[in-house]
Each structure stands twice: as structure tokens, then as C-alpha cells.
TrEMBL record:
Coiled coil: none annotated. The keyword Cell wall biogenesis/degradation does not apply. It comes from Bos indicus. PANTHER family: DIACYLGLYCEROL O-ACYLTRANSFERASE (PTHR12317), DIACYLGLYCEROL O-ACYLTRANSFERASE 2-LIKE PROTEIN 6 (PTHR12317:SF19). InterPro entries: DAGAT. GO terms for molecular function: O-acyltransferase activity. It holds the Pfam family DAGAT. This is Acyltransferase. It is found in: Endoplasmic reticulum membrane.
Amino acid sequence: MAMAFLSQLNLQEILQTLSVLQWMPVYVFLGAIPIILIPYFLVFTKFWMVSVLALAWLAYDWNTHSQGGRRSAWVRNWTIWKYFQNYFPIKLVKTHDLSPRHNYIIASHPHGVLPYGTFINFATETTGFARIFPGITPYVATLEGIFWIPIVREYVMSMGVCPVSELALKYLLTQKGSGNAVVIMVGGGAEALLCHPGATTVLLKQRKGFVKVALETGAYLVPSYSFGQNEVHNQETFPEGTWKRFFQKALQDTLKKLLRLSVCTFHGRGLTRGSWGFLPFNHPITTVVGEPLPIPRIKKPNEETVDKYHALYINALQKLFDEHKVQYGLSETQELTII
């Protein structure tokens, strides 16, 4: 069986597949409470000393992940990320310069079933972020639960990943000088449920927290859209009234209530092209970063001000989408749906 698999792939394809395969479990289990609790349960086993040492270090180093972490240029430049990029492939496109004199919140749309484009373009140097945006240091914000897991915590911090918490965001945008860009997937996991092939729907109308943080810190807002990110997995939504839909909805509702997780029923290709599995399809993903929207710094912005800049941001995102949709595989009539 192994020989049959190898005979269908060349070395480059094997390395590309393995690079994606090693990353998926880390992201899929983000915030999953049973995974997080494993190091704590080890206290009651013969491995208690390993657990105690890991948890002692976690307690001692607790504030680091909310204060910029420990990024590593070496990890961000690992060769494995180049294979990951070429699997799809993934590309980063700049439309305007980002001045190092300011800080930024780059809002990333859509989330996708899994945010492959967002990760490769901003958490690694494979597509040349530092070259394309000189003087800008990117941080990718994600669920805080991942930082409760020893070792995994160090791994994600080394790539410039930080918690999507108010504490961490405000620290990066006010306490580390200028030239910092925090990447936020505004639609979050809930938006993943909307990410079907052919869909261009983003969850944004009621997502205003990132605008409020921008106003409180004076960070410029930057729209970005990853064309093709919704095309790399198929999602299954079973027909209403069937037993499959009943169990699917019950599982989704339970996990959302208990663990704050939005769970998709998705599939893609297998280890070989044309086979069935959970790997993403080989489809190009292009992340286009738009023009920065200047934001004034207001200590306590009122609701009216937040709404004003939220509306301006939506217009900027709409403009970015319309200007680039045809170039990156969509039809002229395709519209961005904002809910």
C-alpha cells in the first residue's frame, strides 16, 4: 500500500502533502478543552514530574504570549513552509505601502474552513512579507486556548502568533512602538460554516470589536481578502429533517456551547490527487492586502463613532473585493455578501 502511494507521487508532492498534514492537527484542535487538559491530567500519572515542570514554566512565563511572544526568524523561514505554500500555491499581493510610522490591524477575510492563506502569508516568511512590507512586524491573532498547552505554545509563539484578546492586542498596538500589524480573522470560527466553494460571504455586520480596538489604539485598519480560500474544502450540510442533519446540528450546537468551537463537516482530497480525504484541494489562494484606512485615537469611542468607522471599513473591503475578483478567478457579477 505504501509503495502504491509513493509510486503515484513525486518527491515534491510528497513533501508538500506532509507539510500540510503536520499543520492541520495543530489548528483543528485549537481551543479544544480535552486537548488542553492533557498536560494537567499527567499530574496523576507516573509522568507527574514532566507535567509539574511544564506547568511551572507555564505559570512563570504566563504573560509572554500576551506581550508579543518569542518570535523566531528561523522558524518563520523553515523550508517546510515553502512546500506548504507550493501545495496550493499561495501568494501575497500588496496594493499599497504600509508605513512603519504607524501600527495596523489587518482584517483577514474570509476565514475559510481552515485559514491556510492567512497562516502562510502572515505567520511565515515564505511569501516574503518582510520584503513586501519592509519595517512591518506581523502578528496573527488566534484563540487563547492554544497558549495553555505547553510546547505547542512555544511553537506558535515562534511564528508570531498571539491571542486575540484585548490585553494582547492593545499591548502590541501601544506598547511596542510602531510598525506592528496584528492580523485578525474577524469572522472567526463562526464564519467557517459559511465557507463553501463558490461562496463569497463574510461575517462582519455585527463584528465591531476590531474597529473599537483600532480607535482606542489609533491603529490603521487594513482590509485583506484571500481569494480561493473557500475553494479548498467541500462542506456537507445535510438536508433538514434527516437524521444526519439532526446529529450534525446537535454536535455543532453542543461544541459551540461547551467549547466555543464552530465545527464544520468538511472533506477534501486524500493522500493522492483524486482520492477522498480531509486534506485541502490543490487550489490557488491569493491574499490581497488593501489600502490602510487612517483611524484617529480616541480613548473611549462612542457607539456612533465605532459605527462610522465600521461602515468606512466595509466600504474599503467591498472596493478591494470588486477591484480584484476577476483577476483572481471570480466572475464580474460575483458579489461580496456581508452578513
